[in-house]
Amino acid sequence: MVLNVPIDTQELELPPQECGKIPAAVEAPQPAPGPLEAFGRLLSEASRPVFIVGRGGRSPGAGEAVRELGNQAGALLATSAVSRGLFHDDPWSIDVSGVRLATDRGADFAG
């Protein structure tokens, strides 16, 4: 979701009585043990794992955590377009995963 607020509105000061209480910090979500164990089992059985990282990989510490797990699992590292460059210096990076059809050629691939 994108919220577009006009510049002149952004520059207005909010009167103190309209300022709300700052919400408490939210704890990072934790995976349920069952699916996490299943993921670990599938990963250990995979012969050629590839980790494809999207926008969430840009969160603080996420890219490094994926890189570390990928190194332990022997996985190739790929990203979506929005996270391009996250693993640019890693020898196991295969850059962006996915396909983008040029508009003038898209009809060649339509079914």
Can you describe this structure?
This protein has four helices and three strands, in the order ααβαββα. It has 111 residues and is α/β, with parallel strands linked by helices. It has a three-stranded parallel β-sheet with strand order 1-2-3, covered by helices on one side.
In terms of topology, how is this protein built?
Layout: H1 7-10, H2 33-45, E1 50-53, H3 62-73, E2 76-79, E3 93-96, H4 106-109
Parallel strand pairs: 1-2, 2-3
Main attributes of the structure:
alpha/beta; single chain; 111 residues; 4 helices
Instruction: Give the fraction of residues assigned to helices.
Output: 25-40%
Quick check: average pLDDT?
A: 84
Spatial extent as radius of gyration: 21 Å
Portion in strands: 5-15%
- The sequence of SSEs as H and E is HHEHEEH
Structural class: alpha/beta
The coarse silhouette is elongated
Helix count? 4
End-to-end separation:
31 Å
How would a textbook summarize the main sheet?
A: 3 strands, parallel
Strands in their spatial order, largest beta sheet? 1-2-3
Q: Give the low-confidence spans.
A: none
* Strand element count: 3
